[in-house]
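Recall from the previous chapter that SMILES is a line notation for molecules. Here it describes pyridoxal-5'-phosphate.
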Amino acid sequence: MTEPATVIIPDELKPSDGRFGSGPSLVRPEQVLALVEGPRAGLLGTSHRAAPVRSLVGALREGVAELFGLPPGYEVLLGDGGATAVWDALTFGLIEQRSQHAVSGEFGAKFAQAATAAPQLGQPTVIEVQPGRRALCQAEADVDVYAWTHNETSTGVMTPVLRPAGAAEGQLVVVDGTSGAGGLLMDAAQTDFYYFSPQKNFGADAGVWFAFASPAGVERIERIAAGGRWMPSFLSLSKALANSRKNQTLNTPGIAALILMEAQVNWLLEHGGLAWAHARTCQSSRVLYEWAEACPVAEPFVQEAVARSQVVVTIDFAESVDAARLVATLRANGIVDVDPYRSLGRNQLRVATFVSREPADVVKLTQCLDYLLDAWGVV
Ligand SMILES: Cc1ncc(COP(=O)(O)O)c(C=O)c1O
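With both inputs in hand, we obtain:
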């Protein structure tokens, strides 16, 4: 049990919005308004097979393609179940025989576990490192998928989206973009299947997944499905692809999630797309890393500077600071969800600096931290 809050942070130090969680994350009020005002007003509670929702899905697929600058032939897919469902779908519908996984934390590990357990596949190669470090895929002769996580939400480690040097043609690059997508600049041509849940930088509701696939990725999906491998309908990427092409999903989607997502994609495009988002998350995260480096009782958890995430910042505290008490006191003051990833077990804060966050609010968060550490007499 942590102590109840004893320190009241003055209002003038507090950020304008206290939602600093790594997902579900801050939703901009303008996104919420899009549910009831503007072109999508009236869509909630209507059929996902009728023209208005299909036109929303079509616009969203085009918006995602524009935002990520998809090369010709790339296709945008979506389905229900979030990125967790995609891990199983990939074991059925994209890994042909054997995969290689670079694991920098819990989320990458979950996909590696799914591939390890899949009876239809050979045992994968798993390159795993200590939490807080960055694992990279390496060219290997007999794998047909290289997989990693763009931004490891559990540890705050960011990994570039680049085909492994020496990767052969036909070896597909599959990247979990769940917390990186929309906040980090990337070259879509470096991937064959990039997928994400929208409750991070896109500030949408969870429960759906989005992906884009290269022509080679599409060819693999269609070939495996045509080969007759058994797969549950819900996890069939070829069914997701066929439905997406009709601007539908296999089963009923959360329409609110789609509207929230579209509002965010449009907002990003209006402001300059991924380059703008990248600069903004870089600015926000830098504030926190510089604060941690300057603070005598804190330090960035990720030692290697280039691996430090721009969108999920992890800060370790010295023993003299009870980070759980810090988390609880911040929560009592309206600043929520800065707990470390549950199984990491560190004396840590984890702060999302997703693109919706005003960088000025991140500065305010550091002022709140200074205020509490000062009030407790630890600095
Ligand atoms: C990197 C990453 N991958 C996958 C997931 C799973 O997403 P979902 O809960 O939407 O299935 C998460 C959730 O936080 C994540 O951060």
